[in-house]
Amino acid sequence: MSGLYAREGQSVSKMAHLRFFPQAVVGGRGAYLTGDDGRQLLDFSASWGSASLGHSHPAIRAAVDRALSDQAGASYLSSANEPCVLLAEKLLSLVPERARGRVWFGHSGSDANETVARMVTAATGRPRILAFNGAYHGGTVGSMAVSGHPAQQGARAAGLTLVPYPNSYTAGSAEAARDATLSHLECLFAAEVPPDEVAAFFIEPVQSDGGMLVPPDGFFQAVEALCRKHGILLVCDEVKVGIGRSGRFHAYEHSGIEPDIVVFGKGLGGGLPISAVVGPESLMNHAAAFSLQTVHGNPVCAAAALAVLETIEGDRLAENAARTGSVLRTALDRLASRHALIGDIRGHGLALGVELVSDAASRAAAAREAALTVYRAFELGLVLYYVGVRSNVLEFTPPLTLTAEEAEKGVAILDRALTDVRDGKI
Ligand code: PLP
């Protein structure tokens, strides 16, 4: 099976611009993947954050096996099935009171955000939506319509207005970043965007694909206050950094806010395709009207998601994400003192980003070096990826089961990769 991608004859720089590795995966256990050449790869990506419990977790295997034996196919458009009812009840118990109404299930973060985008304008009669520059809410037409990532230019909705996500690193300080965006919002409301025409504000509690940006203290509380003042729905996209990854169950808890609508995906299914939107009944009834998909609420995926939530709770994996995340963070901080390429390290728990810059003073993006580092790390046995509006941020979203030893081992590999990139050995 090896040789799915030709390795010979391709220059490294050509490979470096691939986001995908020239290898197929034939297995996985815990934090390790097995490549088609038999190599063990330490996975700091966890399939872009989806494999929340690591690969082939026994709780998911058992739940899926049970559901496959008893209920596979028991997903019927006009009816519910036991795992998805239990999952809906569990999710409702986890969100703030104001969002505790009904649950819609989909297959991906994209279809969930698309459903929300359609639902909020239909339910409120307001035509406008706010979101952030750099926001990645999905890859379907309807989710790209409310996204601000550069990859999605051209697909934006006519009623979408993008606001700068506060970037404490480029702004020089958290306060400067927070104040700049808040005054931008005030000017916007005063001059361009009548707030009573805005249905919803889509937020990422940590902007992951935009560069793992952590909001400054107090920022989202101020946004929440503005939303309440103007009757704007606060939609929190927890797809990438939620479900324990940040060290708390919801990443928005770090900001002390209470969204009206919460969107889950990726880690919810532990690798199986399931997403969920949770919100007040009056709104969610609109979703029921237009957003039917044949196998949504699939019992096999819902059973996997229930197993994920039970394991996160039972094994205290959010706490593990906080603890192991701090080991990872400390090890990365040590690297920063030896690698001039590292400009900034940020994130919460096991959602961390390392911004690479070619010049510390100007913070010029080292995008080529980021791609080369990801590729060299892969050659050395570590799976990483890069994100960011400037494509220069290494992203770490490993399984929530990661151990301190695995964290240290991954950083040792990253150290070698950064050294090889610096020394021009790749
Ligand atoms: N929302 C966020 C914050 C994401 O990071 C992503 C994917 O990276 C999505 C939504 C889209 O999820 P999916 O790729 O499952 O459609």
Number of helices in the DSSP assignment: 14
Structural class from helices and strands? alpha/beta
Q: Termini distance?
A: 26 Å
Nearest-integer average pLDDT: 93
User: Tell me about the biggest sheet?
Assistant: 7 strands, mixed
Binned strand content: 15-25%
Bound molecules: pyridoxal-5'-phosphate
- Count of individual beta strands: 16
Shape estimate: globular
Biggest sheet strand line-up: 4-10-9-8-7-5-6
Radius of gyration: 21 Å
Unreliable stretches: 1-17
Percent range for helical residues? 25-40%
Helix-strand string: HEEEHHHEHEHEHHEHEEEHHHEEEHEEEH
Cofactor: pyridoxal 5'-phosphate
Pfam family, one: Aminotran_3
Keywords: Aminotransferase, Pyridoxal phosphate, Transferase
Organism: Mycoplana rhizolycopersici
Structure description:
The chain has helices at residues 12-16, 46-49, 58-70, 82-94, 109-124, 141-144, 168-171, 174-192, 219-230, 281-290, 299-314, 317-336, 367-380, 404-422; strands spanning 25-29, 32-35, 40-43, 102-106, 128-132, 160-163, 198-203, 233-237, 261-264, 275-279, 342-348, 351-359, 364-365, 382-383, 385-387, 393-396. It has 426 residues and is of the alpha/beta class. The chain is 40% helix and 17% strand. Strands 4-10-9-8-7-5-6 form a 7-stranded mixed β-sheet, sandwiched between helices. Strands 11, 12, 13, 15 and 16 form a 5-stranded antiparallel β-sheet that branches. The relative contact order is 0.16. Pyridoxal-5'-phosphate is lined by residues 48, 108-110, 113, 136-139, 204, 208-209, 237, 239-240, 265-266.
